[in-house]
UniProtKB/TrEMBL annotation:
Cofactor or coenzyme needed: pyridoxal 5'-phosphate
Protein name: Aspartate aminotransferase family protein
Alphabetically ordered keywords of this record: Aminotransferase, Decarboxylase, Lyase, Pyridoxal phosphate, Transferase
Signal peptide span: none
A GO molecular-function annotation: aromatic-L-amino-acid decarboxylase activity
Pfam families per record: Pyridoxal_deC
Region (Disordered) location: 16-35
Family, as annotated: Belongs to the group II decarboxylase family.
A single GO BP: carboxylic acid metabolic process
Residues the record lists as N6-(pyridoxal phosphate)lysine modifications: K284
């Protein structure tokens, strides 16, 4: 076991060391497949085969010049902690069988609430991603608004329930719709609110939409960090409007909620403490390994009522059952890596990480605008949208950049136009990485 884990760790460290200069795309095809082996294979041989099969197809997504999706790297202490979580193989379920995973989630959860501007009294579930966080937040919302209408949705489901309204921005993240599907609402329930010029919710239109129908149990999904533009909803204005209508305000803050941790960006999340539930990712801007995110609920008893489960063999189990705050039952102890990342960075380090990424996004925007290309969004956070002319032309440039391999950006369609989308969220990205990437994009665009 010692030699095996040492080899795995050494291989992972070698890969990580290669990232600053490694071309981003996969070098070849993955070597998996073949028939199911009948006979056992010794573990060291399995490790060797796994590395050989995966290595050619590994992408430098954790590297400093990957700007696709909204992807973080994995901080050194967080990486090591996650390897320990796997090695220790502890169960994050309750504190009878997993005292350490439960305690570390409590500790890291308290630190997260402080950094993100969420009330200390909120409960926190460690979920797999902002998708999971949206599902948990909306499950709590569903419980609360239907309970207030005299309906027990956990017992009786949605058939025959009072009709619920779900109001959300036209520019909400797609995972919100999937959460609504999973919760039995269906995606078509959404009443859309217009977004403003940069993609934040138009609060006047929000009030208009809410006023447009008879009062009903109402859930409103707001957003901190538009996935295209980085725009953040004006929570200070929007949430009181929601509450005046008796609604539940859920904030999808997958990456944008981290603005609260940086003094120069905190104004973007002003009013965040007023919300009823929040979702935020760890594997994006906090730079912890996949899969890691947080679902916070302002009323712990609502959180538990929406998700708790019990069975005869569980009664009398530990006092704290973290499995009642997520949709998973048995889970890996992902709190160790979150605790390690926050311990490694400290409050100042998180603030600096967020601010640096925003500054580097601005540097991208300035560099590409200086080269004559159109930056379409107001770069308030870490997202930049760039056009190279017609949609086809922009897609050609994106494809050329991806082939070139110096850096990697994806494409998106925003308001009917094609753009190169640049997200800066890796702790290791430097000014030199951005300058080198701008040069690569300009080179590809001028071919
Ligand atoms: C990325 C993102 C999500 C989904 O997050 P996962 O971690 O992929 O589950 C949801 N909402 C927003 C705004 C996002 O940026």
């Amino acid at each position: 076991m010692h030699e095996l884990l040492r080899r795995a760790a050494t291989h992972a460290a070698d890969f990580r060391a290669s990232l600053p200069e490694r071309p981003i795309p996969a070098r070849g095809e993955p070597g998996f497949g073949g028939p199911l082996p009948a006979a056992p294979t010794p573990p060291d041989k399995v490790l060797e085969e796994l590395i050989e099969a995966a290595e050619p197809a590994l992408m430098a997504t954790p590297g400093p010049r990957f700007f696709g999706l909204v992807v973080g790297g994995a901080l050194p202490a967080a990486t090591a902690a996650d390897m320990l979580a796997v090695g220790w193989d502890q169960l994050a379920f309750n504190d009878l069988v997993g005292p350490a995973p439960v305690a570390v989630e409590e500790a890291a959860g308290a630190w997260l609430k402080e950094l993100l501007g969420i009330p200390a009294t909120a409960s926190c579930g460690f979920v797999t991603g902002a998708q999971g966080a949206n599902t948990v937040g909306l499950a709590a919302a569903r419980h609360h608004v239907l309970r207030a209408a005299g309906w027990d949705v956990e017992r009786d489901g949605l058939i025959g329930a009072p009709r619920v309204r779900v109001v959300a921005s036209a520019e909400r993240h797609v995972t919100v719709d999937r959460s609504l599907r999973l919760l039995g609402f269906g995606a078509r329930i959404v009443e859309e609110v217009r977004a403003d010029a940069n993609g934040a919710v138009d609060t006047e239109d929000l009030a208009r939409v809410l006023d447009s129908r008879e009062p009903a149990p109402t859930i409103v999904v707001l957003q901190t960090g538009n996935v295209n533009t980085g725009a953040c909803d004006d929570l200070r204005t929007a949430i009181p409007i929601v509450h005046r209508h008796g609604g539940w305000a859920h904030v999808d803050g997958a990456f944008g909620l981290w603005a609260a941790a940086a003094p120069q960006r905190r104004h973007l999340t002003d009013g965040v403490e007023l919300a009823d539930s929040w979702g935020c990712d760890g594997h994006k801007w906090l730079n912890v390994p996949y899969d890691s995110a947080f679902a916070f609920v302002s009323r712990p008893q609502v959180h538990a009522a929406a998700l708790s489960m019990t069975a005869a063999y569980l009664t009398g189990a530990g006092g704290r059952q973290v499995a009642d705050r997520t949709v998973e039952s048995s889970r890996r102890a992902r709190g160790f890596a979150v605790w390690a990342a926050l311990r490694e960075l400290g409050r100042d380090g998180v603030a600096e990480l967020v601010e640096r990424c925003c500054r580097l996004a601005r540097r991208f925007a300035d560099g590409l605008a200086d080269a004559g290309f159109e930056v379409a969004n107001d770069v308030v956070l870490n997202q930049v949208l760039v056009s190279f002319g017609e949609g086809e032309r922009t897609d050609e440039v994106i494809a050329a950049v991806q082939r070139d391999g110096t850096c990697w950006m994806g494409g998106t369609t925003w308001r009917g136009r094609r753009f190169m989308r640049i997200a800066v969220s890796n702790y290791a990205t430097t000014e030199a990485d951005v300058d080198r990437s701008v040069a690569a994009v300009v080179r590809c665009a001028s071919r």
